[in-house]
Amino acid sequence: MIVIQTKKTFYFFVALQVITSHFIIRQVIQGLTHNHVRQKASGLLPAGLLYDPRSQSLVMNGKVGHLQFFSLQTNKQLYNLDIVGQNVVSAHRHQAIVYTEVENAALSDSGDWLATVQRRQDDWSMHEITLKFWSYDCDTQLYKLNTRVDLPHTQKVNRLLFRPSSETHGNTPLAVTCSDDEKFKTWELVDDTDIYRKNECWSCEACGYYKNYAAKDGAFSDDGSLLAVAFDHMLTLWIPENNALKLALSVPGSQEPITRVLFGRLSCAHLLLMSTNTKLVVWNLLTCCIEWCKEMNIVMMCMDPLTEHLAAATEENELQVFHASSSTPVYTHKRVSDSRVVCGIFLPSTGECTGTHKWQQSSQLYVLNEKQELLTLEKERAPGTTSTRGTIAANLPPTPFSLLLAQIAKTDSNHAGGQLQKQIGNPGLTVVKEVSVYYT
Fold first, then answer.
1. 3-state secondary structure of 29
2. What is the DSSP pairing of strand 34-35 with strand 25-30?
3. In the predicted structure, residue 326 carries a pLDDT above the cut 90
């Protein structure tokens, strides 16, 4: 039996389920899950966009309290990971329900570890904040809970990140949390073996603070030897091994809080980038001076892990791509989206090169807007050609539904220009969501 399930309550998804005669779900075919529960304390998609190197999938918020793993190669959702482990209760008629949401998430470079921070905040009780570390189980090919830390901070956690793998520190796993409680904490994997079993868990190794400023963001250098933490308008540098403060920087004459911190990559590893609501500033750590500065009202900034390029989106939905050493953009897109850009990420290119510019040769940029549309830039293909993503689908026998999808795709692909803005998702969504018939 095949069931087409359409659900539009707290979130919207269309799923194709293959069920046996004993009502056991054997397979689920599903696209992106759109969350419509916008809590004031968490916002829309607070965990942002992550990359899972094991499954080569995109990780983001899905259903309430879940993380979804979405494959861009097959354009399908791989699975949902329940983080909070709580039932979703329907809202009362005159009172909104405050749910526990996944606000932060991070994946290690190898994909062996997943860290999450969940929080629930209402108007009358204490914050419920939980930090969880998940280890990857090769047998089940899923993440299982390893360590749970209740109330790791007393206020909202703003950033969660892992230290990059490097031979300089022996590949010892290390994580960092930055919080509004004016502290950042480092977490280290320690031995927890006893007479009953062999085990390892995560423990708080050190705690740092700078004056009475909230820790807003953090970033590791390319080799993991330096940790940058933004305290309000101050940018500080620390040694992760001994938690020693090495340097404190601030933009002369500016008291604007820092919203994002990133280290340069490869030949630009000596550069440290920071953004505020009105400007993008790049520091040279060799001279401790500002390398360049550009006036921009940035809402999103991300660094390409494979090159020296970074992307920034403004309030006007203008996308600019820079080489970290220069304030002159190498690419500009005036209207990348019809709604506000929420987050973005560079992902390693797989198979054919989809871009026409040099900065697109190694990685591909994806951005997510407030409508929860996942967008990317691709070069326009010649008529009659298809990408490698559609090779399998092209060899399948045609069906009335596939012919309908082909007609929709053909209509949507009639755009002018050399660069095509592509929306990732299910092109037959508007058709499928009208179907509520069970086929037996």
1. strand
2. unpaired
3. yes
